[in-house]
Amino acid sequence: MLYPLIRKFFFALDAETAHGLGMHGVAFLNASGLAGCLAKPVTPCPVEVMGLRFSNPVGLAAGLDKNGDHIDGLARLGFGFIEIGTVTPEPQDGNPRPRLFRIPEAQGIINRMGFNNAGVDKLLENVRAADFPKKGGILGINIGKNATTPIEHAADDYLICLNKVYADASYIAVNISSPNTRNLRELQKDDALDDLLAQLKARHEQLADKHGHYVPMALKIAPDLDDAQIIAIADALRRHRMDGVIATNTTLSREGVEALANATEAGGLSGAPVFRRSTDVLKKLAIALAGELPIIGVGGIMSGADAAEKIRAGASLVQFYSGFIYRGPDLVGEVADTLAHVMKKKA
């Protein structure tokens, strides 16, 4: 009952300002031992995916905590895993503000942040200071490229990040699907994807040997793909022995929000309006992969029922970000409870 009141206050502020205040609030509640005021105990639902043991299948999507500043506070809200980033080799400011816009009538958010982050070295400082990974919490690190790096040299940035985060990540997510870094989605095309995955996988194997343990690597894809592209990506994931796929990122479509305020803003649309599109991609990808790789379902989850539909469509885990903004920490418990029942029936 508390979060709707908090949300009313935050929604009266600029979206990015509210985001910063909200994250500081999470940190304060964690430090003061008051995190229980916002979050109830979460139903246990252990699952094993990508060789990792998750306490429950409910994750926080990348983007909310880009620099890993708030890992422990977010973990206290009951997430079974947390994904931080997207992080780039060098710090960058991202796109000019304003760059984050709510569409409350549709429970949507448009962002054109542009991988704003403090750089991979700062993120790793934060990870190493956090208790959550030390206690066995599953922490994904999402990597990308700097905006100033030409697309033909994008692999260099991904390799730098892969080298640096390998020892500190539970799994690594390769983000080639943000619409807010110029030409980034070109990396999803056949030859470019083959080249990138080949380089990443070769380095990945070297790092596994060097560190003496294997860290799974997943690819994050866009929802704006046709059937042929989905099949081609599935084939590339198999061919390069990737460990998982995250479906999906934000959409460039404005279907369902066309007449609403902020709908004409440039950037990726997330939240409820992307649910159907992202779930359709997930379902087609699951068919194409035929169970050979696990899928993390993300995009438009606003309720336990939405998460259950992602699981039925072929996901092994789920994540959300916009749903957390609109529903607050209660969504974590609701989704965990729903999926505990769904997965028990599947078993």
TrEMBL record:
Active-site residue list: 178
Domain annotation Dihydroorotate dehydrogenase catalytic: ranges: 47-343
Coiled coil: none
Localization, UniProt: Cell membrane
Similarity field: Belongs to the dihydroorotate dehydrogenase family. Type 2 subfamily.
EC number of this enzyme: 1.3.5.2
Topology in membrane: Peripheral membrane protein
Keyword check for Oxidoreductase: yes
Leading EC class: oxidoreductase
Species annotation: Candidatus Dechloromonas phosphorivorans
GO cellular component, one term: cytoplasm
Superkingdom assignment: Bacteria
Any one GO biological process: 'de novo' pyrimidine nucleobase biosynthetic process
Protein name, as recorded: Dihydroorotate dehydrogenase (quinone)
Note accompanying the cofactor annotation: Binds 1 FMN per subunit.
Keywords: Cell membrane, Flavoprotein, FMN, Membrane, Oxidoreductase, Pyrimidine biosynthesis
A Pfam entry, by short name: DHO_dh
Cofactor requirement: FMN
Catalytic activity: (S)-dihydroorotate + a quinone = orotate + a quinol
Signal peptide bounds: none
Pathway as given in its UniProt record: Pyrimidine metabolism; UMP biosynthesis via de novo pathway; orotate from (S)-dihydroorotate (quinone route): step 1/1
